[in-house]
Design brief:
about 60% helix, mainly alpha, about 475 residues, two-stranded antiparallel ribbon
């Protein structure tokens, strides 16, 4: 009973950053078109990130193992309050039009193309054959000279979203706005999965704060409307199914995730449960083949050009890269750097699978996935802010301080939007990114050194050992 006043104090301390975060999101909503207020938006998001980190501190500090900063029957109410605040943040920014990124304009164009009988893997927005699709939204369609690179599940989502939206909403710009809806719904799905995933791993539901209160998914899925939430939801579902030993479902969700975006395919070896060189779950993993075949069948065609363009994620064009700049400097040639970065990612996948096979810890699969995705993001030529949502659900289980800091600093990458809006030039990797990465690398190194010199009994965060 003596702990209850302290618990109430911690809840009050969480209410303070929650109120500040809501005020910041209200400010962003007041801005309207965020592309016209890029500097102010970045400043607001950095301030929001600071208060988000404060809330993370209290959530982690008082939730070791199955403990909670709320006692007894208050635990569920505290988690519910945290979840409700996260949903409020999302609803606050929902009316904002997609502005910091033009990706939803591409989503609509590809959906409209498919409704008109075209194949997005073979048609380009600039093709004269599809000039009839050029309307008032067309100038903001990105990649006019390139074919589609999203997975077939995303293409299907775009098609059915366009059919539903075009039947009820007139005007291209208004239709683009409603393309945010399915991916905002997927973000709510991630929250729902975390609600059950956390206790299945022996962690209190209050840890959902690390995802629910992060400004990153609020901005990227509810304001910008990026489609990455679809893959994030399906990957989270795969982890929850694995926790419950429903392996066929786990591989089904993982297969669907890989059919949406390519990166979830890297996680497939982590779910196979190796015995030496023999995978125990290979039969369940075979579900990947019919899932991929059924989804890809409507788009069957030569996609070699699409694959070559997609490889630009690893190399080619550069956006907010970190270790890739070192790889490129050492290689001296983008083509060689692409091969080196690809080899590092492939080696990381094999190492993560081997490490998982030797471990028996409760969070071994989550740890390996976090390390592998972190390596992928670090050595690739592209790391847009919304890419960090790939690892954000895992941070609720493994709250590495440096990675939480990274999620708070990544809005600095939107500095590239300033030149894009004024000059029409995209400069994805500039000196600004070092203000993002140097603190993250310094904290990673400092945490590692602290672990080497500090006794285990004095460590404050149970999962900083990640």
């Amino acid at each position: 009973m003596q702990l209850l006043p302290h618990c109430r104090t911690e809840t009050v301390w969480l209410a303070v950053p929650a109120g500040v975060l809501e005020a910041i999101f209200l400010r962003l909503r007041w801005y309207g078109d965020l592309r016209e207020h890029v500097v102010e938006t970045i400043a607001a998001l950095l301030l929001g990130g600071a208060f988000y980190l404060v809330s993370c501190h209290f959530s982690i500090k008082h939730s070791h193992g199955t403990k909670s900063f709320a006692g007894g029957g208050d635990r569920l109410r505290a988690a519910g309050w945290i979840l409700a605040a996260g949903i409020l943040f999302r609803l606050t920014v929902w009316p904002l039009p997609p502005s910091l990124s033009d990706d939803p304009y591409r989503y609509r164009w590809e959906g409209e193309l498919q409704a008109a009988g075209g194949n997005p893997y073979q048609a380009r927005p600039a093709d004269a054959a599809w000039a009839a699709l050029r309307d008032s939204a067309f100038p903001r369609v990105v990649g006019k000279d390139f074919k589609a690179v999203y997975g077939p599940l995303v293409e299907q989502a775009e098609l059915w979203t366009y059919r539903a939206v075009s039947a009820r909403v007139t005007g291209p710009e208004r239709q683009v706005f409603w393309f945010k809806l399915p991916f905002a719904a997927c973000d709510i799905g991630v929250l729902a999965v975390l609600w059950f995933w956390l206790p299945s791993a022996g962690l209190p539901r209050e840890r959902i704060l690390l995802y629910a209160w992060s400004p990153l998914p609020v901005l990227e899925f509810w304001a910008a409307g990026h489609n990455d939430s679809l893959a994030v939801l399906l990957v989270a579902g795969a982890f929850l199914a694995a926790r419950r030993h429903r392996w066929t479902w786990a591989f089904l969700w993982l297969s669907l995730a890989a059919a949406a975006k390519l990166w979830p395919a890297l996680l497939l070896p982590l779910f196979l449960d190796w015995e030496g060189w023999r995978p125990r779950r290979w039969r369940q993993a075979l579900i990947f083949l019919p899932v991929a075949g059924l989804l890809a069948w409507p788009y069957r065609s030569n996609v070699w050009e699409n694959a070559r363009f997609l490889s630009g994620f690893v190399s080619g064009w550069r956006n907010n890269d970190s270790f890739y700049s070192l790889v490129l400097w050492l290689a001296g040639d983008p083509y060689i750097a692409k091969k080196i970065a690809g080899a590092i990612i492939l080696g990381g996948m094999l190492a993560a699978a081997a490490w998982t096979a030797r471990q028996s810890g409760a969070l071994k699969r989550e740890r390996a996935a976090l390390a592998l995705l972190l390596l992928t993001l670090m050595v690739s030529a592209n790391c847009h802010p919304w890419y960090l949502t790939w690892i954000l659900p895992l941070l609720a289980f493994l709250p590495v301080p440096a990675l939480l800091l990274w999620s708070a600093l990544v809005p600095l990458a939107y500095a590239a939007v300033i030149d894009w809006s004024i000059l029409g030039e995209w400069r994805g990797s500039t000196w600004v990114r070092w203000y993002e990465y140097v603190p993250v690398f310094a904290l990673l190194a400092g945490t590692w050194l602290l672990r080497k010199v500090r006794p285990r009994s004095h460590r404050s965060y149970d999962s900083s050992s990640c």
